[in-house]
Design a protein that fits this description.
With 202 residues, the chain is an alpha+beta fold. It has 7 helices and 5 strands; from the N terminus they run ααβααββαββαα. It has a single domain, classed as 2-Layer Sandwich (50s Ribosomal Protein L5, Chain: A), CATH 3.30.1440.10.
């Protein structure tokens, strides 16, 4: 069976599913992903080296297919021990074809590689957007195995034009985002299962 890319599924079965679930007939009124932002926070004490910054930039370019932008502080904050111009993060903003290709790999191949993966939290931000936090960047197949000291985490922000969390959740489920099972349903199933009395008789 031929594999359908996310680009084709967004304009085919995913659009059809959203039309039925949301009761929308106009395809242009359906919620959609507008951009994907990949963020890497840079810890001053552990990651403040030119070599590591270069590695992060190279790795993000491999993962996303786009050169990252380093973010620097605009003012000094003594409580956080930061000074003006200090590099505190790297980010990539994906749109269009690159965004769809990245999402396709993330959902189909990368997330299932997480050890003991039990699904993502089904909590949106109230505006139909969703953030995924990853502790280990080496789950991406493009990244070669490295020493533990160079492993870094990242946040992946999925931004949509959804009006609310209901529309956003419908979109993410149609995309195939692997959310955790509903805990209430799980507890109901477990409580309804027959139990055996193992206590000793008098």
């Amino acid at each position: 069976m031929k594999y359908e890319t996310l680009h084709n599924r967004l304009r085919g079965p995913i659009a059809d599913t959203l039309k039925k679930e949301l009761g929308v007939t106009n395809v242009h009124a359906l919620p959609r992903i507008t951009k994907v932002i990949v963020n890497v926070g840079i810890n001053k004490t552990k990651m403040d080296s030119k070599e590591l910054h270069e590695y992060i930039a190279q790795t993000l370019a491999q993962i996303t297919g786009q050169k990252p932008v380093f973010r620097k502080t605009r003012k000094a904050i003594s409580n956080f021990k930061t000074r003006v111009g200090l590099t505190v993060g790297a980010m990539v903003t994906l749109r269009g074809k690159k965004m769809e290709e990245f999402l396709d790999r993330l959902l189909s191949y990368v997330l299932p590689r997480i050890r003991d993966f039990r699904g993502l939290s089904a909590k949106l931000d109230g505006h139909g957007n969703y953030a995924i936090g990853l502790k280990d960047h080496t789950i991406f197949p493009e990244v070669a195995s490295i020493e533990a000291s160079r492993i870094f985490g990242m946040q992946i922000q999925l931004s949509t034009n959804a009006k609310n969390d209901k529309e956003g959740m419908a979109l993410f489920k149609a995309l195939g985002v692997p959310f955790q099972r509903d805990q209430k349903k799980k507890d109901t199933v477990e409580s309804s299962a027959p139990t055996s009395d193992t206590s000793p008789s008098a």
